[in-house]
Known about the structure:
It is built from 25 helices and 16 strands. It is of the alpha/beta class.
Amino acid sequence: MKTLNLDKLxxxxxxxxxxxxxxxxxxxxxxxxxxTAKENDRLTVKKTDLGxxxxxxxxxxxxxxxxxxxxxxxxxxxxxxxxxxxxxxADASRNAVPSVDGVKKIMRLLxxxxxxxxxxxxxxxxxxxxxxxxGYMRGRYTTKELKELVAYGELIGIxxxxxxxxxxxxxxxxxxxxxxxxxDCDDILLVGADKTYEFIENIFRQCAxxxxxxxxxxxxxxxxxxxxxxxxxLNGYRKPAEVMLEHLTRxxxxxxxxxFEPMMWSDMFFRMQFGGVYYxxxxxxxxxxxxxxxxxxxxxxxxYYSSDKNLLANMFRCHxxxxxxxxxxxxxWKWHGLSTICWYSIVNTAAELKAAKAxxxxxxxxxxxxxxxxxxxxxxxxAVNLYYAENAYGNTSDENMNIRANEVFGxxxxxxxxxxLPDRLTNAENRKxxxxxxxxxxxxxxxxxxxxxxxxxxxxxxxxxADAAKxxxxxxxxxxxxxxxxxxxxxxxxxxxxxxxxxxxxxxxTRDKKELKRLADEVIPEIVERIKKxxxxxxxxxxxxxxxxxxxTQDIRIGGLCQRLMTVAEIVNMYLVGDLSExxxxxxxxxxxxxxxxxxYIAQNxxxxxxxxxxx
Length: 616
């Protein structure tokens, strides 16, 4: 273990170093290698007679420099980022709200990679004093917590940027009866209503009180039904684009009133131009649309799916046609269940960042969404976040990615990529094109309804998950081993459960009562026991990283799965003793859930769609 002497550093640099060095297993000692530093336009790290000298352009880059000392022993490090800013956005709105300690750990790792900013995506998970129901029992961040996180980020060069919603995506808060009365439709605010702008004023007032950053992400994406609900009843028909632009103008005015420089996801402007479509490989943005975008508003081109050169080139070209700054947001996929899709993320990110750089878009955001429950570990996508950072400095070779994974995390890059393992069933070519998540849908797939039974290779999945479980269990002592242990337990379950429905149906169709008895009395109880072990590991992961709120959904879903399995065993035994003349769901032959899927494995992560065609 290295020891460092920080006495030659100024207070700011010394504090930053002391804050992040615990992640590297480095101790501070008077007898350690002496660290000196100088401001520079790039990152340099070189060995000196007494220790190391770090040149840096920003505080977080100095932190990155601390991870490069071992490499500097072999030769001077000299690297310059092409990115003006590199930010990570963590989803704090889909049940898993990262704890204060969890956010601090993410910040430390971001700084060590060279990121300079972070967003916490908060739809309603922050406190607004005049709205006690806003984020109630959702794990919302208090004013005190946000100020603490802002101050902590300052210590290591991570700017915490507010990331909110100001039009749609009030998915959870709309459950409140008071709030639901001032919605247009779905989860979209009622444009033009006094209550809407009183609410938005309170949002910006609170953000101004909590954050030092003058940047703010106001969301404004995917408001597809704006103006078509209560607004239509009150005002008659107007083009949705006109309604949204009226609202945007008012929101930007309020943002400026509180000294903020707003940014927003850009999709709504493209949908105005292209008849509801966002991603276009051809076409331009008209002057009519461009002229309606408020000055000073940064447009964020978000794209988690594209590697097509022509599409990317046109999308960046269209963004540059606006008289507004452009940022780019790509995906660090952790939103399809417990597993990640880092492999798919990196393929797309490589193409997207190449196009961004070529177009001169240098403000970059990596996003870690948490759709439908935010089950994956907060640290499960660090392989992708590392790729963003290394792309910034121009070296994403396999060799360098492995070196950097060890320098930052103390793990091989391959170990970081193991968070993909439960969904790495398809071949490499399919993974380039399809963010399939079989571990998610095969886990919740009902054993006798079998909605997902056609979306697997039945002769391979059991053995695959048995091998994957062994690989993951062997990594339980690694840096993020508790998260990999959760996935190991998931694979243990899927070894038996993935094909349970097919086995039940086959035995039922052939009237193999001995096999039905074995499945009901031996296999299903064993699956339930394995699920209980999974739930225990999952709790440890959640409690380590997140606030307690939100796990009640996991208890309900996973507990419901256990109960359903026991009910299925009961149904089978009722059939075997003659209390049921038939098992109706097993009489039907399974059909594909998605007839249009290009591959046997599909990208379906929505619990309510997987578990039953009935109302959930």
